[in-house]
Design a protein that fits this description.
With 322 residues, this protein is mainly beta. Helices cover 5% and strands 52% of the residues. The protein is built from 1 helix and 28 strands. The protein has a 5-stranded mixed beta sheet with strand order 7-6-5-4-28, with no helix packed on it. A 4-stranded antiparallel beta sheet has the order 8-9-10-11, with no helix packed on it. A hairpin with a 5-residue loop joins strand 16 and strand 17. The radius of gyration is 17 Å and the shape is globular. The termini are far apart.
Length: 322
């Protein structure tokens, strides 16, 4: 086995052991670029979505994984699980402008759409951290379940959800007081968590039970479980459907939001991980770790229709479209 092949297998193993809807790009704005975290390359690549070409690469040591955009999409915030840092990239000049040590094994990340606060899940610290990007300081910490991974925030900015992988649960956090107000037991090892448009339900991708738990945020109860492909990772919403990346099946599972019935399965590249929908719902973009690709899927034809070659080990766990 080559050295690169060995590194890839080791990184995949780590991703499985410590392994999006992520909020879509700002409504009314055309999506122009994707910022792709590439763990094995220690970098964030910039893909021009018109040409589907990587046009820039930003060095980010520490095995970058999670990513989220500021409300105006002028900054990309990146987690580095090996570097224990939150890294801020100015998206207009494509440069790192500040970095902050936030704790042990930062992975999942999300931004409050109202306040702009940045929330980071510290995998090894079993906590969610709030960072004020203006002062570049940690302002709050709250303990959650074991091994938190994905984070989602309601559209009104009042509630934060944390997917606590080793606790098989979703923690519920009040954003104002930054206190944990409850938890919802879901399937086995939730990783990505997403809130559908309108904010009434959350969807947790359970990587071991191969299903998605549907949570009513009003009652804080699981109301349905949807079977999907092997090792579901992230969730995105577009065109009335949910799109789920299946890491071990090289596919997206698609089901209707109205009745949770399956629509189709879409073949994509090897080991799909991060996924995000465009604001107009016409496409979803998928980072395929094994093939070093960013793929575009047309949400009307339900087919992958374009791809871009990116740097080694793309994950893009979070919101990465600009």
């Amino acid at each position: 086995m080559t050295r690169k092949g060995l590194a890839r297998r080791m990184a995949l193993a780590v991703a499985l052991c410590i392994a999006g809807a992520i909020a879509p790009a700002v409504a009314g704005e055309a999506v122009r670029e994707a910022f792709v975290t590439s763990q094995l390359a220690d970098s964030v690549g910039v893909v021009d979505l018109a040409t589907m070409k990587q046009v820039a690469e930003i060095a980010v040591p520490g095995k970058p994984a999670g990513i989220a955009m500021s409300p105006q999409r002028d900054f990309a915030y990146v987690t580095t699980p090996d570097g224990n840092e939150l890294v801020a990239i100015d998206t207009s000049v494509r440069k790192v402008v500040w970095r902050l040590n936030v704790g042990k094994g930062p992975l999942g990340i999300a931004v409050n759409p109202r306040s702009g606060a940045v929330y980071v899940a510290n995998w090894y610290g079993d906590e969610i951290v709030s960072v004020d990007p203006k002062t570049q300081q940690v302002t709050h910490r709250v303990k959650v379940g074991r091994a938190p991974s994905g984070i989602a925030v309601t559209e009104d900015g009042t509630t934060i959800l944390s997917a606590d992988r080793e606790s098989d649960a979703i923690s519920i956090i009040d954003a104002a007081s930054f206190t944990r107000t409850g938890e919802v037991k879901v399937g086995e090892h939730p990783f990505g968590v997403a809130i559908e448009p309108g904010g009434k339900r959350a969807f947790a991708a359970n990587v071991v039970s191969n299903d998605v738990s549907v949570i009513d945020l009003g009652t804080r109860k699981v109301t349905a479980t949807v079977k999907v492909g092997a090792r579901p990772y992230g969730v995105a919403f577009a065109n009335g459907n949910a799109f789920v990346t299946n890491q071990a099946a090289r596919s997206l599972s698609v089901f209707r939001l109205s009745d949770l019935q399956p629509v189709t399965t879409i073949p994509v590249g090897d080991y799909p991980e991060g996924i995000e929908a465009t604001a107009d719902g016409t496409a979803v973009y998928v980072a395929c770790w094994g093939d070093n690709l960013l793929q575009r899927v047309d949400t009307t034809t339900l087919k992958a229709d374009a791809k871009a070659e990116v740097s080694d080990g793309p994950r893009s766990f979070g919101a990465f479209l600009r």
